[in-house]
Design a protein that fits this description.
By secondary structure, the chain is of the alpha+beta class. Helix content is about 45%, strand content about 15%. The chain is elongated and about 105 Å long.
């Protein structure tokens, strides 16, 4: 536990020693500041009480109160720095007090408080969501990295691009974790990117709270914005292949069925978890899905309106209106294995099914505004990305071998 000791003393202002300035001196763990600083108070030298470290007489009441306030402010600042995990030195405490800035904060200390303030978003079964688990795993990875590089006490203000680069290298090439009961070295590029984005979010939050300057987060963006993201979806023949394939493993069969169900509903994973019979309505003898989409904490819900297509309806009936749900993490793991067994060589996640649904609807000749309503997009802008991509790919196929471009 660090210890602070504050002293006030007089320094004669003139050779005759009749007047004096009241100065402040303090030490942290026995190490004193190099140069004491003035409190701004000038007194008659004879009125100083060295033992009590204050002025004599009632007419100095205001000045004595000022000294008490200075003592309190320095003590509170010291306690705040210690509480935030900062290794306080006398000179750093002096500099911070005189400049009047907020006390510097340790990265790990701020990370802990930032995580504690995040709104919990449990899954339908009450278990932590994928986002919650990702943040907790991120905290563990960062702590191990900082300990390994002897930077556990690094301050927010000392975080630079170099830390991001080194953290990314550690995750990609040095970090060890267990997957399928086997020890694996190095995370995938996607996992590295997600962890860097979380670190960036932490630094952005620190900037909002005025704990770091803008220059500390100028180098937090590592994504290549000029490089287009790979647009992955399944074609209709691939959907049919997955739907007709008979898996020996029941877990893989159930996951394949869930994925096909999403392909004909446009559901995201959260929509899948919250879907019930109450989201189904009858209109002119046809069954429709009318569902408020789960957009997550703080986001406005959007309504999806679409027919309950036969492939999805058959699966709903097969499982007696009770879909065989499982965690998002296991779902992503199993669907990759299921697609691999079917010979579908694409990087598939649960959200791929949602993109596949949009493309399936487009391929059926439905316009973009209607597709937006079917998949529950707030506007057609998001849908248009799929629509334009689809049109471009169609044009490319039609122009192949006909016109040079």
């Amino acid at each position: 536990m660090q210890k602070l000791k504050i002293n006030f003393f007089r320094r004669f202002a003139a050779p005759d020693k009749k007047t004096a300035y009241v100065m402040c001196h303090f030490s942290v763990d026995g190490m004193r500041i190099k140069t004491p600083f003035s409190t701004g108070i000038t007194i008659a030298a004879k009125d100083w009480n060295s033992e009590q470290q204050q002025m004599k007489g009632k007419h100095y009441a205001a000045q004595n109160e000022t000294l008490k306030n200075i003592n309190t402010q320095i003590t509170q600042l010291f306690n705040a720095m210690v509480l935030n995990g900062v290794a306080v030195s006398a000179e750093k405490l002096k500099e911070t007090y005189l400049v009047g800035v907020k006390p510097p904060t340790c990265l790990l200390s701020f990370l802990t408080s930032w995580l504690a303030k995040q709104e919990p978003t449990p899954q339908a079964d009450g278990k932590p969501s994928t986002n919650q688990l990702r943040k907790l795993h991120f905290e563990k990875k960062l702590k191990v990295f900082l300990k390994k590089t002897d930077q556990t006490a690094i301050l927010l203000e000392d975080v630079t691009e170099k830390l991001f680069v080194n953290f990314a290298h550690y995750l990609r090439h040095e970090a060890v974790f267990v997957s399928k009961k086997k020890q694996v070295k190095g995370y995938s590029a996607e996992v590295v990117k997600k962890n860097l984005n979380l670190l960036k979010n932490v630094m952005e939050a620190a900037y909002v709270q005025e704990l770091v300057s803008r220059k500390r987060i100028e180098h937090c963006e590592f994504a290549d914005k000029d490089k287009p993201k790979e647009f992955i979806f399944l074609t209709k023949p691939e959907i049919d292949l997955l739907a007709s394939f008979k898996f020996a493993n029941q877990s893989l069969q159930r996951v394949a069925d869930l994925f096909v169900f999403q392909c004909y509903t446009g559901f995201a994973y959260s929509d899948l978890c919250s879907f019930t019979s109450a989201d189904l309505v009858m209109q002119n003898g046809k069954q429709w899905i009318v569902k408020n989409r789960d957009k997550g904490q703080g986001n406005q819900s959007q309504k999806a309106l679409l027919p309950f297509f036969v492939p999805a309806r058959k699966l709903w009936q097969h499982y007696a209106a009770q879909l065989p749900l499982l965690s998002n993490g296991k779902y992503n793991l199993y669907i990759k294995e299921a697609c691999h067994l079917c010979g579908i060589g694409k990087h598939i996640t649960t959200h791929t099914a949602r993109r596949t649904a949009a493309m399936l609807f487009f391929e059926s000749g439905i316009d973009e505004a209607t597709v937006a309503a079917m998949v529950g997009h707030a506007t057609a802008t998001t849908t248009r990305k799929y629509y334009i991509r689809n049109r471009m790919e169609r044009m490319e196929k039609q122009l192949e071998g006909k016109l040079e471009w």
